[in-house]
Specification:
Length: 805
């Protein structure tokens, strides 16, 4: 790079920074002033909040004044927020105002424009000249999409064509240009090399300076209702998803707020890992949740549902237990579209017969029997959907309860309760009564006023002798209070026997076929039924039953929806079943979906292949409304590690490593476990000395994690963390972690604790090993105390190095 160009750029940088500093300083008093003013107004607002109710006019006056003041306060606060956002944006820009520049000569114009790109926009004092363009602005996409030469970008007004004359990248720190590259490729490798060579962090970083063209296509996709991203491990799916959220918040800032976007992540710890990316970009975080959290929310009061981690532990460890094969068949079936269709048919069948209700009981008596409910429900117009009839039944039940409640006032138990009221209870009822009395008084006044106005006299019913009715009213209150839980449970549909409805599906084959029209039933059906019913009898559900159970609940009670959410992101999308996708679509009827995943890492039984032509995702919103983007370049790991990991995978040939060189993976075979753990300890010490701070010992299961942790600790590995499904916050350091919890996360160095045939030899274990190894950025070690897993044995020997035996 010529030195005078560098100097010119440094001078421009200083000019822009000076302007930024001036603007920040100018705004400072305004920001602080506004903050104080708003705080002061808020304080005074509460202090002065006295409402004069002496006369109606006084009351109205104070009411309007309060309303006016609070509107002013809200406006002031909005203005304040805008200004503070602007101010914070400039402060964020100051140390490193931009990272890219393109010179673009638009066709038909005589000059070209220098477009500097940073994390937000900054306009010169004239209000017209952009000193920095936000990376999400239409013109900034030139930087990500084209090398110098002919280029175009899309604006709301149409496509702008022209020639890119220069493309430059900067690394700026504390106001100094540290590096500057003129790129010929889309985004030059040099900068990416440097970024990727850095150490792992406890928090994911934003990638705006080096977004790749195919990632940009994901970030800016605005066309499809469903965007599917199938990408190799480390190809930047999660990164693209988060920058896409930032993009959507920018592009649709008038209509979409951060809390209208939700990200489904694989576990809570992953949530903490990605939580800083958006704030780093000056945006608020979207909502984050896990599917399990949702299930627990709706099921926890009814049943205990197994979580996906216990399910995977079972599938990986219980091969020798009785019933294993049936459970596996059950998982496969219950997560399939076939089961979804069967349940839809079951809904139709229930529309005709077979509904199950629970008697409504009161003081050990049956008030309304299940049979009566059933008869009533099937007497409603049969053309109505099942849930509408259940809602009608609910209304009928509430009416029935009201008339039964009236009858109960004469029951002896009510009189007895009245007689045995202690002082406190009496006072409580008396209080309730007086509230009613006030209401009565009010309605009495109103009735009198009407009488006067209409000049007519009501009958005697207006003259209530309150004192005489006190006892009767207390009695009424006693019965009302006792019926309250009944009304509440009817409103919550507790009269529907959901457990019975789900359980009755798991009868013999003939009855299942009759209820669901199902043709292909898993061979071990009767064992599957027994296992499911056993769980239900203990008020428990297998993980694979949880979503179908909710589905049946909604068939009967109506579908729950959230219309606020406009975008749903599903990360690790291969881990969701066809069933779950159907469910998410129903739950968020106004949302667009972005599903990102890697079938190569499909380690859960219910996996969905995102890109197969028969993938349920392809037709969830219809083919015309669906786009599929594939990412094959892997950025996380060194070339040597990617060459090794891609060969572990059937069909991994198409994965392209990014050209960052490093050590070949190292294989250690030790004579026994003690020696293996001593070797691991030694390797941890030496890698730490090399400066690698984040090292993960990855195990296959939680049980193996416990063993490894105890043994390594006894060997003297200090500051060792053990990650479990309960771990909420991801902290950098040396840790032992089961592979299924390490999904989506990365480490400087990964040690595969036990790469033996016992651990990794079945087909689904191949993906498990692949997932574990692909967590490594710079170093990968595999250990065994006997043979190597057949997947490792099958690798060409030039892909790794063996430590001497
Ligand atoms: N364009 C990019 N510029 C800089 N770094 C990138 C880029 N794309 C990806 N990376 C880095 O590569 C690593 C992997 O990215 P990310 O975690 O988003 O991949 P992923 O596809 O979600 O991986 P996995 O499927 O293994 O969870 C991260 O460290 C990320 O910062």
């Amino acid at each position: 790079m010529k030195t005078d160009e560098w100097r010119q750029e440094q001078e421009r940088l200083e000019r822009v920074r000076n302007k930024l500093m001036t603007r920040i300083a100018e705004l400072e008093p305004e920001v602080t002033g506004l903050r104080d003013q708003a705080a002061d107004m808020r304080k005074r607002f509460w202090e002065e909040l006295t409402i004069n109710t002496s006369t109606t006019e006084d009351f109205e006056d104070s009411f309007y004044s309060v309303q006016q003041q609070s509107a002013m306060l809200a406006e002031r606060e909005r203005g304040h927020k805008r200004l503070v956002d602007q101010w914070n944006g400039m402060k964020r820009l100051l140390p490193s105002p931009y990272f890219g520049r393109v010179d673009f000569h638009e066709d038909g114009l005589n000059t070209s424009e220098q477009v500097y790109i940073g994390v937000s926009s900054f306009v010169d004092d004239d209000g017209l000249n952009f000193l920095i363009y936000d990376w999400r602005s239409p013109i900034a996409s030139l930087y990500y999409d084209y090398p110098p030469g002919r280029a175009s970008y899309v604006t709301p007004g149409g496509t702008i064509e022209g020639t890119m004359e220069l493309k430059r990248q900067f690394q700026i720190q504390d106001g100094q240009i540290r590096n500057m590259f003129d790129a010929s490729e889309t985004i030059g490798d040099e900068l990416l090399q440097q970024v990727l060579g850095k150490d792992a962090d406890s928090q994911m970083k934003s990638i705006v300076a080096t977004i790749q063209k195919e990632q940009n296509a994901i970030i800016r996709n605005d066309k499809s209702r469903m965007l599917i991203v199938q990408g190799a491990a480390g190809s930047g799916k999660t990164s693209a998803a988060l920058q896409r959220v930032a993009y959507l918040l920018y592009k649709h800032r008038q209509t979409i707020k951060a809390d209208q976007i939700v990200l489904f992540s694989p576990n809570s710890m992953f949530g903490s890992y990605v939580s800083t990316v958006l704030p780093e970009l000056g945006e608020e975080n979207m909502q984050q949740t896990t599917f399990q959290e949702y299930l627990d929310y709706w099921l926890s009061s009814l049943l205990r549902s197994e979580d996906p981690f216990d399910q995977i532990e079972y599938t990986l460890t219980a091969q020798d237990k009785p019933g294993y094969e049936a459970r596996i068949q059950g998982i496969a079936y219950k997560t399939s579209e076939a089961f979804l269709k069967a349940l839809q048919n079951y809904g139709k069948w229930l529309g005709r017969e077979g509904m199950r209700f629970k008697d409504i009981r009161f003081r050990s008596r049956v008030l309304i029997t299940a049979e009566r409910m059933s008869a009533k429900m099937y007497a409603f117009d049969s053309s109505l959907p099942l849930f509408s009839r259940v809602v009608l039944l609910q209304e009928w039940l509430l009416n029935e309860l009201a008339s039964l409640e009236r009858k109960e006032r004469d029951a002896s138990w009510a009189q007895e309760e009245l007689n045995y009221l202690d002082n406190e209870q009496y006072a409580e009822f008396f209080g309730m009564l007086h509230k009613e009395k006030e209401l009565l008084d009010l309605s009495e006044h109103y009735a009198m006023a009407r009488e006067l106005m209409n000049k007519e006299r009501r009958g005697d019913e207006g003259d209530i002798d309150f004192a005489q009715r006190e006892e009767e009213l207390i009695l009424r209150s006693i019965v009302k209070k006792s019926f309250k839980p009944l009304r509440k449970s009817v409103r919550k549909f507790s009269f529907v026997d959901i457990k019975g409805l789900y359980g009755q599906l798991f009868g013999d084959e003939a009855s299942y076929r009759e209820k669901t029209n199902e043709v292909v039933i898993p061979p071990l059906w009767s064992e599957i039924c027994k296992q499911t019913r056993d769980m239900l009898s203990r008020d428990e559900l297998f993980h694979e039953d949880a979503t179908p159970y909710l589905f049946v609940k909604e068939l009967v009670e109506g579908v729950r929806t959230n219309k606020e959410i406009r975008h749903v992101f599903v990360d690790e999308g291969q881990d969701y079943s066809a069933f779950q996708y159907e469910y998410l679509k129903k739950l968020f009827p106004r949302a667009r979906m972005t599903v990102l995943g890697d079938f190569g890492q499909a380690i859960f039984m219910q996996a969905t292949n995102l890109e197969a032509s028969d993938s349920p995702l392809m037709w969830l919103f219809g083919e015309a409304d669906t786009s599929l983007i594939r990412l094959v370049r892997s950025y996380r790991s060194t070339r040597e590690i990617v060459e090794f990991t891609k060969s572990l995978l059937a069909g991994g040939d198409e994965i392209v490593p990014f050209e960052r060189r490093g050590h070949k993976p190292l294989l250690f075979r030790l004579n026994d476990m003690k020696k293996r753990d001593a070797q691991i300890l030694e390797d941890i010490v030496s890698l730490r000395a090399e400066g690698f701070a984040s090292i993960a010992v990855i195990t296959k299961t939680a049980a193996e994690s416990r063993e490894a942790y105890d043994s390594l600790q006894s060997q003297g590995v200090g500051e060792l963390q053990r990650i479990t499904k309960e771990t909420l916050v991801f902290e950098k350091g040396v840790m032992v972690i089961p592979v299924y919890l390490a999904k989506g996360i990365e480490f400087d160095a990964v040690f595969i604790y036990n790469a033996s045939p016992a651990a990794y030899s079945r087909d689904n274990e191949r993906k498990l090993l692949y997932t574990a190894c692909t967590r490594a950025m710079h170093r990968l070690h595999l250990y065994t105390t006997g043979d190597w897993s057949p997947f490792v044995q099958a690798l060409p020997a030039n892909l790794y190095e063996k430590a001497p035996d």
